[in-house]
Amino acid sequence: MSQIKAWKLISLFCLVSLLMGCESKEEQLQQTIQQSITKAEAELEGLGKALDNGSIRNAVLLSEYGRIISEEKPELAQIANVLALDATRKGALYTGLTQRLADIKSTYLIPPYEDTLLNIDLLRDAVKPTLFSDALTDPINMLADMSGGSLARVGAISKQAEGEGEGNQLVGNPNYGNWQTNSNGISFWQWYGMYRILGDVFDRVEYGSWSKRRKYSYYNDYGRARYTSPKQMKAQTAVETRTRQSYQRQGKQFTSPYASKKTGASGLSRSSYTPPKTRSSYSKSSSYSKSSGSVRDSSSRTSRGVSRGK
């Protein structure tokens, strides 16, 4: 009888130890997430201060491009000022990162914790000044295209070398708008809030044709994993799947906008040329790891300055 009791006690001890071990692992993950959130908050604030004091090169260049366009083409001054906001904390790019961090903080206790850790890693990459500076090449190049050739593109080949058609570098970037699907199942790009004014300058964009003929942009070719939240990535996948299925029903060929990188990028930081990679073992089981990860410790190269002429 005593042997049976001893066996039961040993079994109970093993079970309790196992449960305590599981709880300990969960608690450790939560602590790691909390520590990562604290670091992300400090790094995001550091990026904001860098924007405030003018130490991010492309932010300074974006402001300068906005000023030049406003002076040389007063009819485009309002649009130029809206795009130039990305050189500040008020721009869509910075506020988008702020919102992503707020979303993480409100849901970090909800599993799967591995996905949360990966999302934080990607966010911490995105707030690096070198990568954020690269991301600013999209609004810079939109202003360059609007200048009619008086301002040079940055981090990309010239508009002349790329071919006819406006670049629309911000189309597809969920920080500035989203794809709206009409009753016929056709998706069109819809600008958010103050960016709706861009619709007065650029033609309406239909997803299928944009996908097939998309021009180079930093976001779509290099920055999508880092500057897109999981929710936004899911929405992009849904639009792509819906459009692909629609094309198949019509017997038409569909080309994914992300099937391959577009040519023309140059002068970006080394971090941008390095795809996001998983950094630790927890990422192997994450459903988000296939399209995201993190890169640490990178150096940067400067972009071209303001250029008069093509």
Give the C-alpha Rg: 23 Å
Percent helix: 40-55%
Strand content: under 5%
Structural class: mainly alpha
The tally of domains stands at 1
In DSSP terms (H or I, runs of 4 or more residues), the helix count works out at 12
The low-confidence runs, each spanning 5 or more residues with pLDDT under 50, are 279-310
Q: What is the typical, i.e. mean, pLDDT?
A: 85
Strand order of the largest sheet: 1-2
Sheet with the most strands? 2 strands, antiparallel
First and last CA, distance:
94 Å
Number of strands: 2
Q: What string gives the helices and strands in order?
A: HHHHHHHHEEHHHH
Cα shape: globular
Topology at a glance:
Blueprint: H1 2-52, H2 57-72, H3 77-84, H4 92-107, H5 113-126, H6 129-135, H7 137-146, H8 159-162, E1 177-181, E2 187-191, H9 207-213, H10 218-223, H11 230-249, H12 270-273
Antiparallel strand pairs: 1-2
Helix pairs in contact: 1-4, 1-5, 2-3, 2-7, 4-5
